[in-house]
TrEMBL record:
Domain of life: Bacteria
Protein name, entry field: ROK family protein
Protein source organism: Rhizobium quercicola
Record family assignment: Belongs to the ROK (NagC/XylR) family.
InterPro entries: ATPase_NBD (IPR043129), ROK (IPR000600), ROK_cs (IPR049874)
UniProt cross-references to CDD domains, sorted A to Z: ASKHA_NBD_ROK_NAGK (cd24057)
PANTHER family reported for this sequence: BIFUNCTIONAL UDP-N-ACETYLGLUCOSAMINE 2-EPIMERASE_N-ACETYLMANNOSAMINE KINASE (PTHR18964:SF149), ROK (REPRESSOR, ORF, KINASE) FAMILY (PTHR18964)
Ranges annotated as spanning the membrane: none
Length: 303
């Protein structure tokens, strides 16, 4: 029996798992942001609720781990930031601890139980608050040790112009320290930034997509530019990895016409031609982070 966790900046979601067919959710608990002792106690409270001490635990978390030092970068939870988290938790809880990036866990879940079933190479994409991704081959993460593979959202890859007629796109600064990352113009915050740039109007992403689907010309222009900017780096990632399916998670994955537009643009820009959808909404609609973490813990191997 294992316990898996999906660690977010506001809440910790947990589950008890004995197999992928038997995953039982636990009570959702607030995430202690500044107190590591309180963070450990929150995990231990989940063990008490489960009624038995697990053999090991696995965490899905929005961060990356330095393969050399094992220190995790997770800026939204200060008590974990730059800490060798797997080691420190293992020492405190006296059990093996596996940690994976949340996008990696999404990709694992989709490869095992979602849209990626039957595909050898699955590139899972997150279009939520920001842009992320994870790469799975033959059912295993390409580099579970770190969470860097598949992170197509970072790196100076955004085109200087986009749309028809073309509009100049600034190299917006990114939270990773670089400028011009896909993360700055893709997904929800990027959509809002582009709409402000194009129209001088501050709107939340859900309002922009709603207006677009209702036929609003300004919102349509924003979506056109976003699709143009996002599709080229995603097509390059698919060419490099050879992925044959790209499940999408995050908030924008629920906007089916947007995913279809990205799919159409991506398939026009890759070397291999598909006569079926390639970029598709993820199918693990309930807690893919927990499912991916459960896969890590049940196999006992994060690579």
């Amino acid at each position: 029996m294992i316990v898996c966790f999906d660690i977010g900046g506001s809440a910790i979601k947990g589950a008890v798992a004995t197999s992928l067919e038997d995953i039982r959710p636990l009570t959702r608990r607030p995430t202690p942001l500044h107190d590591f002792d309180a963070f450990v106690a929150t995990l231990e409270a989940a063990f008490e609720e489960a009624g038995v001490r697990p053999e090991r635990i696995a965490l899905s978390i929005a961060g990356v781990v330095d393969p050399d030092t094992q220190a995790i970068t997770v800026a939204n939870i200060p008590c974990l930031h730059q800490r060798p988290l797997a080691r420190d938790l293992g020492d405190r809880l006296r059990m093996p601890v596996l940690i994976a990036n949340d996008a990696d866990c999404f990709a694992l879940a989709e490869a095992g139980l979602g849209a990626g079933r039957g595909h050898r190479i699955v590139f899972g994409v997150i279009l939520g608050t920001g842009v992320g991704g994870g790469l799975v081959a033959n059912g295993r993460l390409i580099n579970g040790d770190g969470g860097f593979a598949g992170e197509w959202g970072h790196g100076p890859a955004v085109a200087a112009t986009a749309g028809s007629p073309p509009v100049a796109i600034p190299a917006f600064p990114c939270g990773c320290g670089q400028s011009g990352c896909v993360d700055t113009i893709g997904a929800a915050r990027g959509m809002e930034r582009l709409h402000q740039l194009l129209h001088g109007e501050a709107l939340p992403s859900h309002e922009i997509t709603a207006r677009w689907q209702a036929g609003d010309a300004g919102a349509a222009r924003t979506i056109e530019v976003l699709v143009d900017l996002v599709s080229s780096p995603l097509a390059l990632a698919i060419n490099i990895t050879g992925a044959t399916i790209v499940p999408v998670g995050g908030g924008l994955s629920g906007v089916a016409p947007l995913i279809a537009a990205i799919d159409q643009a991506v398939r026009a820009r890759i070397l291999r031609k598909f006569d079926r959808p390639l970029v598709v909404p993820g199918e693990c609609r309930i807690e893919p982070g927990l499912i991916g973490a459960a896969l890590l813990a049940l196999t006992g191997d994060d690579r």
